[in-house]
Design brief:
With 242 residues, this protein is an alpha+beta fold. It has eight helices and five strands. A three-stranded antiparallel sheet has the order 3-4-5. The protein has a two-stranded antiparallel sheet with strand order 1-2. A hairpin with a 2-residue loop joins strand 3 and strand 4. The termini are far apart.
Length: 242
């Protein structure tokens, strides 16, 4: 029996969408990654077959220096019934020229598809430490050598920035803090307001630098929350502490 209703169709799509091949390749860092086009080319025909449309719209875009942050709304529409479902995603990117917003949009679409449909790309965060089954000794030696070569290359060329999809802790930290600062400005929060919010809601230490992981989580939540609601929450918590 064919799935009816938007929720039923999305659930059916979860079972039809499989692991996406990684056709992107970084020649400098020597790794493959799934591109946005890999994901859309894989998902689009299945959505069309199910009669589900995705309509994107930009809710906000902010840029500070080379780093941009964009919030998008994605509306899933059942072409048969007109039933809709909305979800919000964020995208962040870095560019010195005029392509920053487009990089942000690409990232937002890519990770919305990945997280909505739980798409696996085959990435393994322990890849450098876990050799392939059946060739443990040889594979382990090769991976260790590749790991050393990557680290040496990174030390020799510190100005190189990995492309979208790469793991760069320094860049991720900058993006997280920049995103939080953008939301601080959007919500008209003082530094004292922001620190108080981080402490009471996210259990951040009262002293020291802002933790990037907490900054990213707080920025994402603030991006989905109205300024008046944030102000009401802060005032309420201050009243409880008084």
């Amino acid at each position: 029996m064919p799935a009816s209703g938007l929720a039923a169709k999305l659930a059916k799509l979860l079972g039809e969408i499989q692991r996406v091949p990684k056709n992107g390749y970084n020649s400098f860092h020597k790794y493959q990654y799934a591109t946005e086009s890999d994901l859309t080319d894989h998902v689009r025909p299945l959505l069309a077959k199910a009669g589900v449309i995705i309509m994107p719209s930009v809710l906000s875009y902010e840029r500070e220096g080379e780093i941009g942050r964009l919030t998008m709304k994605f509306t899933f529409i059942d072409a048969e019934s007109g039933e809709t479902f909305e979800t919000v995603g964020i995208g962040e990117g870095q560019d010195k020229g005029d392509k920053c917003a487009y990089k942000c949009m690409t990232g937002a679409v890519k990770y919305m598809l990945m997280k909505t449909f739980l798409i696996a790309t085959g990435d393994d965060p322990e890849q450098d430490e876990q050799p392939a089954r059946g060739s443990r000794r040889q594979g382990g030696q090769r991976q260790q050598q590749d790991g050393r070569q990557r680290r040496e290359a990174q030390q020799q060329a510190p100005s190189e920035t990995p492309p979208q999809g790469a793991s760069d802790p320094d860049l991720e930290t900058k993006i997280a803090i920049s995103s939080l600062k953008s939301q601080q400005k959007r919500h008209d929060l003082t530094d004292e307001d922001l620190r108080f919010l981080l402490v009471v809601r996210y259990h951040h230490p009262e002293e020291g630098d802002i933790d990037p992981a907490i900054a990213a989580k707080a920025a994402e939540e603030l991006g989905r929350t109205k300024p008046e609601s944030v102000r009401k929450y802060i005032d309420s918590k201050r009243g409880e502490a008084a």
